[in-house]
């Protein structure tokens, strides 16, 4: 019962925040979650910029770094939220890659909206499951935990995309959008939700003691058979431009627009009726003692760095605080060697370590130089 006790203690703490806010009027679950986000930020449990975070007593350690490319403003953004939802055994990580002229605004809006919305939906689903006499959370808690997270993610992403379309008129997301790759670690469970072509890769130890990569997500490119089939059924088109062989994009039926290089994204309403979707692929993995870390990175990394290279770069970095920065710097060198003459993309990464490092002693929140 330890897990359930911790879970409901966290819910009780969130409800106390909600009751406190009711003094100034009605408060929804989303408003309560937003209040929790503000409280967490005040307590140095939320990181939105390059740096690292390690809460006292936590097994989690997260390193974050982002570098602007050569195409203008940096449209990547990140977030790490330790003790997500007042749960001591939970952490939320998200990385977002905007595109289009308003992409940086869309990415930041989704970064700010998705975590509290997910938290609100998760709390509501947990409460409903606890009251359901046919749902025994304790008998098969891992199965039910994942079902609850998957339901919460699907509901959240649908709501965020609708909210972006209807309520954020100041952000022009008709021809702009963002990807979203997020994970929640809850004890020994990690839940991964992917919308777009960013990628999550696990670094784990093999039987012979070597570190190997396990790709946890699918890069949702338009030429994937199931993605291309959906787009074509909706009268969208998928093809490469002559000067971009191998780069498949999504196009409107009768126009060479918008030319999206991914098949799932928030925003981009010009092509939402023609096969682009914001539905996440939600998967899970139970962390073992062999699993060392997971890296979340935008396609600016994976365009020039292989999964194996990424886990080797991270594992060979002596100072964990520098792991994300070193991966990004290696990707920058990769662009110079492998993509000469092509404007470098924005490059961002989050490295989440699962086990504490005995030699690492840091303040709860510190920024990289």
Automatic annotation (TrEMBL):
<dbReference type="GO" id="GO:0009414">
    <property type="term" value="P:response to water deprivation"/>
</dbReference>
<dbReference type="InterPro" id="IPR015655">
    <property type="entry name" value="PP2C"/>
</dbReference>
<keyword id="KW-0904">Protein phosphatase</keyword>
<feature type="domain" description="PPM-type phosphatase">
    <location>
        <begin position="61"/>
        <end position="354"/>
    </location>
</feature>
<keyword id="KW-0378">Hydrolase</keyword>
<comment type="similarity">
    <text>Belongs to the PP2C family.</text>
</comment>
<dbReference type="Pfam" id="PF00481">
    <property type="entry name" value="PP2C"/>
</dbReference>
<protein>
    <recommendedName>
        <fullName>protein-serine/threonine phosphatase</fullName>
        <ecNumber>3.1.3.16</ecNumber>
    </recommendedName>
</protein>
<keyword id="KW-0479">Metal-binding</keyword>
<keyword id="KW-0460">Magnesium</keyword>
<dbReference type="GO" id="GO:0004722">
    <property type="term" value="F:protein serine/threonine phosphatase activity"/>
</dbReference>
<dbReference type="GO" id="GO:0045926">
    <property type="term" value="P:negative regulation of growth"/>
</dbReference>
<dbReference type="GO" id="GO:0046872">
    <property type="term" value="F:metal ion binding"/>
</dbReference>
<keyword id="KW-0464">Manganese</keyword>
<dbReference type="InterPro" id="IPR001932">
    <property type="entry name" value="PPM-type_phosphatase-like_dom"/>
</dbReference>
């Amino acid at each position: 019962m330890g897990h359930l006790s911790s879970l409901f203690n966290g819910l009780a703490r969130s409800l106390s925040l909600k009751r406190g806010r009711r003094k100034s009027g009605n408060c929804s679950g989303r408003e309560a979650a937003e209040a929790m986000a503000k409280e967490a930020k005040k307590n140095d449990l939320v990181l939105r910029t390059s740096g690292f975070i390690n809460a006292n007593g936590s097994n989690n350690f997260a390193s974050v770094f982002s570098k602007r490319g050569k195409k203008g403003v940096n449209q990547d953004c990140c977030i790490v939220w330790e003790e997500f939802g007042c749960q001591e055994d939970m952490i939320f990580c998200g990385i977002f890659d905007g595109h289009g002229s308003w992409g940086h605004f869309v990415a930041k809006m989704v970064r700010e909206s998705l975590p509290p919305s997910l938290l609100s939906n998760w709390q509501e689903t947990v409460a409903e499951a606890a009251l359901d006499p046919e749902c025994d959370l304790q008998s098969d808690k891992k199965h039910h935990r994942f079902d609850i997270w998957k339901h919460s993610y699907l509901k959240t992403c649908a709501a965020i995309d609708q909210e972006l379309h209807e309520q954020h008129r100041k952000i022009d997301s008709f021809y702009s959008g963002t990807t979203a790759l997020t994970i929640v670690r809850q004890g020994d469970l990690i839940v991964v939700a992917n919308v777009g072509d960013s990628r999550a890769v696990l670094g784990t130890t093999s039987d012979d003691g070597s570190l190997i990569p396990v790709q946890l997500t699918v890069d949702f490119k338009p030429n994937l058979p199931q993605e291309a089939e959906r787009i074509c059924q909706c009268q969208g088109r998928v093809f490469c431009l002559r000067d971009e062989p191998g780069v498949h994009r999504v196009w409107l039926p009768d126009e060479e627009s918008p030319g999206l290089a991914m098949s799932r994204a928030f925003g981009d309403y010009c092509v939402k009726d023609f096969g682009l979707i914001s539905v996440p692929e939600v998967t899970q993995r139970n962390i073992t003692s062999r699993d060392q870390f997971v890296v979340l990175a935008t396609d600016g990394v994976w365009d020039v760095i292989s999964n194996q290279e990424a886990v080797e770069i991270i594992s060979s970095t002596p100072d964990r605080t520098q792991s994300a920065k070193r991966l990004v710097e290696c990707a920058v060198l990769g662009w110079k060697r492998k993509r000469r003459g092509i404007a470098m993309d924005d490059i961002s990464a989050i490295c989440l370590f699962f086990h504490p490092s005995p030699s690492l002693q840091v303040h709860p929140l510190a920024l990289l130089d």
